[in-house]
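One such given next:
>
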Amino acid sequence: MTDDAYLFLADGTAARLGAPLAAVGDLACLETPAVRAWLDAHGVSVASGDLRVSPPEETRHIPEDAEKLPVPLSEEELLRLRHVLAPGAVARVEDELLAYRDCAGERDALLSRAVLAGVPQHRIVELTGEDPQTVASVAGGTSPEAASGPAASRR
């Protein structure tokens, strides 16, 4: 397995592999001279249905004789690519995980606002499912990471 994704030209058998580039959207690597030269050399535009992209974990399935080019993708680009390739149920769960990731970054701010608004700590725990110690540490003004450190494990 490689750490790079691959752009490749699909023939009849490879048409089901990877994702059409158009479905994934703009990728930063498409603006690089190497990718532009590769596309020009093969007479392919980024809008071509034959141009596919495969994530690193799937590149072993690309046929040996396929025209292919390794390309680096950002984490966000890889997420989009994997989302396009995921079956419906998996895609929905991945959407939920992405939403969770996006809101989890604001967790401490939200917990602090709830405490400042006067929501009782036990109710915050009930509503959020957060650990009572985490809520208590935010209410007390300490970071949850500090509260769950070695000193907290001795309690």
Observations:
- Residues 88-104 form the longest helix (17 residues).
- DSSP finds nine helices and four strands in the chain.
- Strands lie at 5-9, 19-20, 51-54, 68-71.
